[in-house]
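Listing 4. Sequential folding, example run.
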Amino acid sequence: MVLAGKISTEVGVKASSAKFFKLFSSELHHVQNLCERVHETKLHQGDDWHGSDSVKQWTYVIDGKVHTCHEIIEDLDKQNKKITFKLFGGDIDEHYKVFKLILEVIDKAGGNAAVKWTIEYEKINEDIDPPNGYMDYFAKSTRDMDAHLVKA
């Protein structure tokens, strides 16, 4: 059985791609105020939420269960509006050896935008399911954030 995989989802948003990308590239600490599924975020290590040496701790709900993990930004590509996050610790390490989350904010025709989430993962064993619950979580959270960004 295959232990490594990649899944993705794309969600259309009404907010501009620049506004949505700015939230993740320079205002990440606000996400907990915009999504009911995010219970808490805090800076675990480092001085800056967006520094390459900063580690954030997230507490969130997927499928009715509270989860925790740590996150670092591995790559930030402002030109292509793409960020690669590495998630680890907490519940992630119980199921996955590798868990990378890639956010891409895409400009679409007519001034519209979309947010694409991709998870690249490696399970610790073949009995672990792919992280489909995370895809649902990111899709729903994207809609929550978009609704707020459109009002702001």
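-- end of first protein; second protein begins --
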Amino acid sequence: MFRSVASLIGLVVLPVLVLGAGEPGEKSIREGDLESRVDALASIQPGLGVVMHEIGYRFAALYWAAKGGNWGLAQYQLKELGEAQEVAEVTRPRRREMLKAFEGSYLAPLRKAIEAQDGDAFGKRFLQAQQGCNACHTALGYGFIQVHVPESPVPGILDYSLKSEPRN
């Protein structure tokens, strides 16, 4: 009898140990009430630094794409940059207004220059966007973060000199 009770306990306890029921109060996206599951998801969202890394990469890539005449790639990089910024607007709502202002003041004119394939307008708008980035960082107390374009494209798999058109 003892043996069958021990076996029954083993059948119940062992899967819990193997499957990792976790400690009480441990965060889980699959277990618990809806509010605790949402809190667990919110707690693993990327910080603004992670999102800004993505934005910075896209910013430099769109510069080199436009400079190389790959306007389709420049447009794509700007679109992806905007999507990364949307993540920041949702996950860091205290920064939403500033991010939206940056989008309207700098990214929209940059988009128009890309669509027009206007290298001179692009250069001017890009410089303004770069200055806007740095002003924002300074205003938020992060003046030690100053954006600049690398002297050459970041090595990788993208062909910045492929001639292409922006998409409609």
